[in-house]
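STRUCTURE:
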């Protein structure tokens, strides 16, 4: 199959969260399975892309859409990168989504509408690439939400032609890409698709809803989250629609990229180690304490957090549990950025507990790796979590995670109970009492060295590779082709 993986972010070029990691890891595995895969993303100004420019293709102006270039890069991994070059839309300060002031870029509707439109065009006769058009356009999250709608329009306009099937992946249903309905003109949404059976969501235009409405197949990033988003509690207003599309919705757990997240080969660690050399992990703990300004106490139980600082991630539960975390000589190392109030509350904790709590308000890849390796226990009490990657990284690094029982955390962490050792500690409820319960069990296990080492070993032996998940995506692509009337 010819597969276009269309995404707003891809590590290491640009990454704000888990989607960046998935965009880097899944396409090469699909290519190794024998498919022709291309990645499409914007050419952001802040990006440093390693690789040779192979060609540049014209994207012709069409209706209200501007002219642009597709810069084709050989990234050296069997998956050419197509950078959509349109400086007026993508050369900005800040992240792909927000400016340096933290506010959304004011023209996000057209920035990502255009990306979606070019993604769709690559799946039609009007593909800007010579000799290549996609059979499958795999659209990721709300920034690519308009793609399935555009492909559907292309299919209606060209019933005899071969138009790609669309697959829409929800990496986080909470981000929906909501814009004033007035943007519908800008985005060329036909009148009959502006209602509740189209893109409308409580009076606004929802890009994610457009994707869910018109995609040939829908996936999300864990089986548990696939079930949760069909309920009122986690469906963010789209649960009814997702229930109605349950036949085309599947949950496929993300994997981790063993080339990047492996403690035995991790070039960002001062000391590499494996399951047979866990003593070296302790050297990373010492390095972490030194780097963060934590007291150099070898016996301290060091808790680590690497996270976007938002209500989703349950950081308030960590803050509320601080006295308990730090009792008995515990330490806390946090790396994250996000909501100003949470940043401030964490910095206040540093002032209150100097040498015991360390916080870096930053986005720092090497510190993220060092926390995964140097901490004893990783905290991830998310209120909801579509998949989550850090709890998998921490297991691979021998750092048992403490997690809430939600989404992909349920699907990737085995609770350690008195009856069995497991790979981490799962909160029985998403509140302070649930956190305290899991913390007590984690601390008791840490005090029992042989038991802790068994839990570490279980996590390190868990296989979170991409192979089986990539095979499941291939099966979903096949189903999408059949629904689109193209049995391959
Ligand atoms: P989400 O996508 O919801 O942010 P995930 O756990 O799926 O959460 O993925 C987060 C990814 O982003 C992980 O690779 C994590 O290490 C990384 N990350 C998050 N915050 C930071 C940060 N401040 N510095 C470095 N890496 C970060």
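SEQUENCE:
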């Amino acid at each position: 199959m010819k597969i276009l993986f269309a995404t707003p972010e891809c590590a290491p070029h640009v990454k704000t969260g888990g989607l960046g990691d998935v965009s880097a890891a899944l396409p090469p595995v699909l290519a190794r399975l024998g498919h022709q895969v291309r990645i499409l993303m914007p050419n952001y100004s802040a990006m440093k892309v390693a690789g040779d420019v192979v060609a540049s293709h014209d994207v012709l102006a069409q209706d209200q859409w501007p002219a642009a270039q597709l810069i084709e890069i050989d990234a050296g991994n069997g998956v050419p990168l197509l950078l959509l070059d349109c400086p007026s839309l993508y050369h900005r300060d800040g992240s792909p989504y927000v400016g340096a002031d933290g506010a959304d870029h004011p023209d996000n509707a057209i920035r990502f509408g255009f990306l979606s439109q070019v993604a769709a065009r690559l799946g039609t006769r009007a593909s800007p690439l010579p000799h290549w058009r996609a059979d499958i356009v795999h659209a990721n999250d709300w920034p690519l939400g308009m793609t399935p709608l555009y492909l559907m329009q292309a299919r209606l306009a060209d019933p005899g032609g071969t138009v790609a099937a669309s697959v829409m992946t929800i990496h986080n249903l909470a981000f929906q890409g909501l814009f004033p309905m007035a943007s519908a003109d800008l985005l060329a949404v036909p009148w009959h698709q502006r209602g509740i059976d189209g893109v409308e969501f409580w009076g606004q235009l929802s890009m994610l809803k457009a994707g869910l409405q018109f995609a040939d197949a829908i996936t999300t990033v864990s089986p548990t989250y696939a079930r949760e988003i069909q309920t009122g509690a986690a469906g963010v207003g789209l649960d009814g629609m997702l229930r109605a599309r349950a036949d085309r919705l599947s949950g496929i757990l993300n994997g981790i990229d063993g080339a990047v997240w492996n403690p035995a080969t991790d070039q960002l660690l001062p000391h590499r180690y494996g399951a047979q050399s866990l003593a070296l992990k302790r050297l990373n703990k010492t390095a972490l304490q030194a780097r963060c300004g934590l007291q150099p106490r070898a016996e301290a139980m060091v808790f680590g957090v690497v996270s976007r600082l938002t209500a989703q991630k349950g950081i308030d539960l960590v803050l509320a549990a601080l006295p308990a975390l730090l009792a008995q000589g515990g330490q806390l190392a946090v790396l994250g950025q996000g909501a100003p109030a949470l940043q401030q509350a964490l910095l206040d904790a540093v002032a209150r507990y100097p040498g015991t709590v360390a916080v870096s308000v930053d986005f720092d890849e090497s510190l993220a790796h060092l926390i995964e390796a140097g901490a004893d226990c990783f905290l991830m009490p998310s209120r909801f979590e579509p998949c989550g990657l850090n709890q998998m990284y921490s297991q691979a690094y021998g750092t048992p995670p403490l997690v809430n029982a939600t989404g992909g955390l349920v699907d990737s962490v085995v609770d350690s109970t008195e009856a069995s050792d497991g790979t981490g500690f799962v909160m029985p409820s998403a509140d302070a009492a649930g956190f305290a319960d899991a913390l007590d069990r984690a601390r008791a296990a840490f005090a029992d060295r042989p038991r802790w080492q068994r839990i570490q070993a279980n996590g390190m032996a868990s296989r979170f590779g991409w192979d089986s998940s990539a095979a499941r995506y291939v099966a979903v692509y096949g189903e999408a082709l059949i629904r689109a009337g193209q049995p391959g």
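REMARK: The chain has two domains: 2-255+467-483, 275-461.
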